[in-house]
Amino acid sequence: MLIYAEDIFKGLYPMLTVTFIDGLRLEGETYDDIVNQLYNSSFSEEDTVEEFMQGVGRRAQIQTGQAINFTDCESFIKELKRVNIVTEILEH
Predict the structure, then answer these.
(1) Does 79 reside within a domain?
(2) Exposure of 56 by Cβ count < 10 A (0-12 exposed, 13-18 middle, 19+ buried)?
(3) Which terminal residue of the chain has fewer beta carbons within 10 Å of its beta carbon, N or C?
(4) What residues are paired with 16 via a beta bridge?
(5) Of 37, 41, 34, 38, residue with least CA distance to 16
(6) DSSP codes joined into one string, 74-85
């Protein structure tokens, strides 16, 4: 049986680091992890992660003047990067 190093170390360190314009830095294995952390740390009134992302999208458009279009957590974070709400995405 062949064992790969990435299989051994998977889960031992974050695969993603996302930094926001206010300096907040979140780490996780997936984009879903990052969005769930953001949702859980917010004072949002939205009941679901999807509603939360829609609300953030509305606020981002007000703040930046640019609409964000997304279909999942990855495209959500990448759209926030495009409009400079996210300043850095490190995939490692």
Answers:
(1) yes
(2) buried
(3) N
(4) 28, 91
(5) 34
(6) HHHHHHHHHTTS
pLDDT at 50: 96
Q: What pLDDT shows up at residue 92? A: 84
- Count of domains observed in the chain: 1
> Global pTM?
0.84
Parts of the chain with a pLDDT under 70: 1-14
Domain span at residue 78 reads 12-37+44-91
Spatial CA neighbour of 73 closest among 18, 21, 24, 22: 18
Q: Of 47, 53, 44, which Cα lies nearest the Cα of 71?
A: 53
pLDDT for residue 76: 98
Residue 28 is assigned to a structural domain of this protein? yes
Is the dihedral angle over the CA atoms 49, 27, 40, 60 positive or is it negative?
negative
Q: Which residue has the tokens 């360190």?
A: 13
Contact 34, 18 (CB under 8 A): yes
